[in-house]
Amino acid sequence: MTQENLTACGAAPENQAPVTVDQFLCFALYSASLAMTKLYQSRLKPLGLTYPQYLVLLALWEKDDVTVSEVGARVQLDSGTLSQLLKRLEQSGLISRRRDVGNDERKVLISLTGQGQELKVRAAGVPADMISVMDTPIEELSDLTVRVAALRQKLIKAIP
Question: Which residues sit opposite 110 in a β-bridge?
Fold first, then answer.
C-alpha cells in the first residue's frame, strides 16, 4: 500500500504525526451521508416521509409485493429498524402487510396501497431536484455512485 493510500484511509506512517479527521475516508463517507440525508429531508418533509421511509418506498416502487427480508436486504436495514419503519408506513396508509398464506405463513409480504402508488407521482421530482442542487455533472454523479457501490460491496465482504 502506498503512502498516499495509507493517508486516504486514515493510517499515518510511523514517522508522521496522526492525520486529521478530514483525511479519513470513513469520515468523508459518513459526513457526506449525513449531508445527503439532511438535503433529502427538506424535500421529503412536504411528502410526510423520512429518508429511510423514502428508501423503502423507492424499493417498493421498483418491485412491489415482496417479503420484509427482501426489502431489508434491498435497503440495507436491519429487521428491528425496518419493522418499526414498516409499521409507520402502514399506519400512514402507504403500504399493507400480510402473511404469505400461499407459500410460507412465516413470511410477511409488503405491498403498496393505492395511496403509496400515488405518492410515487408526487415524489417523482425529488431525484432531479437533488441532482440540480448538487451542482455536479450527472456523469460524475453516476461514476461516483458506481464507485461507492463497489466499495460498499468490498466492505461488506470484509466484515467478519
Answer: 66, 97
d(CA 141, CA 54) in angstroms, rounded, equals 20
Rounded-to-integer distance, Cα 107 and Cα 139, Å: 40
Kindly state whether residue 70 falls inside one of the protein's structural domains.
Answer: yes
Sign of CA dihedral 125, 29, 142, 81: negative
Assess whether 55 and 42 both reside in one domain.
no
Residue 54 to residue 5: CA distance in whole angstroms: 35
- Mean of the per-residue pLDDT values of the chain: 89
Instruction: Provide the domain limits for residue 152.
Output: 135-160
Tell me: pLDDT of 34 over 70: yes
**Entry pTM:** 0.84
What is the H or E stretch that residue 107 is in?
strand 104-112
Number of Cβ within a 10 Å radius of residue 94 = 23
Domain count, the chain: 3
Residue 129 domain flag: no
Provide the pLDDT confidence category of residue 101 given band limits of 50, 70 and 90.
Answer: confident
In a domain, 112, yes or no: yes
Model confidence at 157: pLDDT above 90: yes
What are phi and psi for residue 113, nearest 5 degrees? -90, 175
